[in-house]
From TrEMBL:
Species this protein is from: Solanum lycopersicum (Tomato)
Record-linked PANTHER family: WALL-ASSOCIATED RECEPTOR KINASE CARBOXY-TERMINAL PROTEIN-RELATED, WALL-ASSOCIATED RECEPTOR KINASE GALACTURONAN-BINDING PROTEIN
Official protein name in the record: Wall-associated receptor kinase galacturonan-binding domain-containing protein
Keywords: Signal
Bilayer topology term: Single-pass membrane protein
Annotated GO MF terms: polysaccharide binding
GO cellular component terms attached to this protein's record: membrane
Localization in the cell: Membrane
Primary location group: membrane
Superkingdom of the source species: Eukaryota
Listed Pfam families: GUB_WAK_bind
Leader sequence residues: 1-16
Gene encoding the protein: LOC101254679
Domain Wall-associated receptor kinase galacturonan-binding: from-to ranges: 32-91
InterPro entries the record matches: WAK_GUB
Lineage start: Eukaryota, Viridiplantae, Streptophyta, Embryophyta, Tracheophyta
Length: 309
């Protein structure tokens, strides 16, 4: 009878250790929120694989405490993430500003992959001023005698931009509607008008980008905010992520099929962290969990042998 009771005690104790390990793992649920320099990286973004929304996978990278965004047209420094207004502010080091005009095809422009288009696009009040484009540029084709695509965006355009000190040395050609002598050195467009700022395909030597933070209005190009203001969005209902975070989990996705997952410490759920484990909840025990349980059981077995139980 004593041996039976001892065996029962050992089994119960080992099961208890296992359960406690699971509880501890749930309580220390893996958090996907992270930081890069002075920027918080939170859902839908992430710098870890499997975290955040799958539409933003392989997008942000933290390099020496500098947050970088990488898309098909190049890499950009992330200056700010505004979660309240769902927008990012990006910087292209080779982009022209009011004080510096950069030619030589060195700028990245802005082109997103086709599958990212539903998630990421420059805001409607972001003006792109294309510089040094040739007469053969697609911007000027199909509109005999007129450069119709060139226009002001949110009150910002080339006529004002020509007043920047960066143009003092270059001396731009301020041509009007008709450009028989050649296209102007600056053509302002919205992203929606051409869907991609590809300097090579547009036959342009450089570009500048500025945005307006309405209702704030500034006087002239000296006060414009230079950079690329990008609007982001998450398609569909976000109730899954809210339920996941409300139960202590972190929103993520399956790296194989990109389906949504709620990360709950050492296990992942397809609903939330309060749900009961089932076939749909993949339980992943860590090596530390297994070793802890094994060491505990061996210690109890040795103790029982020493006591002669």
């Amino acid at each position: 009878m004593a041996n039976i009771l001892t065996a029962f005690f050992l089994i119960s104790t080992c099961q208890t250790l296992t359960v406690l390990r699971g509880v501890n793992s749930h309580g220390d649920a893996h958090k996907c929120r992270s930081y890069c320099g002075n920027l918080t990286v939170d859902y839908p973004f992430a710098v870890q694989s499997g975290c955040g929304h799958s539409g933003y996978r392989d997008l942000l990278f933290c390099i020496n405490d500098v947050l970088m965004l990488h898309i098909s047209s190049g890499s950009y420094r992330v200056l700010d993430i505004d979660y309240a207004y769902e927008s990012l502010t990006l910087d292209d080091p080779h982009m022209s500003t009011c004080s510096s005009i950069v030619f030589g095809h060195r700028g990245n422009g802005f082109v997103v992959e086709r599958w990212r288009e539903p998630y990421l696009n420059p805001t409607a009040d972001n003006v792109f001023m294309l510089l040094g484009c040739t007469a053969e540029s697609p911007l000027f084709q199909g509109f005999p005698g007129k450069h119709l695509p060139c226009r002001n965006v949110s009150g910002m355009g080339c006529e004002e931009y020509y007043g920047c000190p960066g143009w003092d040395i270059i001396g731009p050609k301020k041509v009007g509607v008709v450009y028989g002598s050649g296209p102007p050195d600056c053509c302002a467009v919205s992203f929606e008008a051409i869907k991609a700022i590809n300097l090579t395909k547009l036959s342009c030597q450089g570009y500048s980008s500025a945005y307006s933070l309405a209702p704030l209005r500034v006087d002239g190009p000296h006060g414009w905010s230079y950079g690329i203001r990008v609007k982001y969005s998450v398609e569909g209902d976000d109730s899954f992520c809210k339920a996941c975070e409300a139960t202590g989990g972190s929103c993520g996705y399956d790296v194989n099929d990109f389906s949504s997952l709620c990360m709950c410490g050492s296990w992942n759920s397809t609903s939330n962290c309060d749900s009961v484990h089932s076939a749909s909840h993949r339980r992943t025990w860590s090596l530390m969990d297994a070793l802890t349980g094994l060491v505990g059981c061996i210690s109890i077995w040795k103790l029982s042998a020493t006591l002669g139980l």
